[in-house]
Amino acid sequence: MNVKKVLDAKGLACPMPIVKTKKEMETIESGEILEIHATDKGAKSDLTAWAKSGGHELLQDSEEDGVLKFWVQKG
C-alpha cells in the first residue's frame, strides 16, 4: 500500500485520535492514504464512522501488539 503519511496517535484517548486524523487529512491530497496508529480501543468504531461521514474510505485495519492500525484513503 502506498502510504503518504503515518500518524502516531498511540496513547491518546477519544476524541484525540479523530481530531489528529482530521487535521492530518488536510495535509494530503485526494486519493492519498494516511496510516493511523492508535491504542484507544474506541478508535476502531470512531474512525470507521468518521471516514464514512467524511467521504473517505477505510481501506484496511489491523491490530498488532495492542496497536490498532488503520489505512484511510482521502475522498
Automatic annotation (TrEMBL):
InterPro entries: TusA-like (IPR001455), TusA-like_sf (IPR036868)
One protein family per Pfam: TusA
Entry keyword set: Transferase
Domain UPF0033, first and last residues per copy: 7-31
GO molecular function, one term: transferase activity
The family this protein is said to belong to: Belongs to the sulfur carrier protein TusA family.
Protein name: TusA-related sulfurtransferase
Upper taxonomic lineage: Bacteria, Bacillati, Bacillota, Bacilli, Bacillales
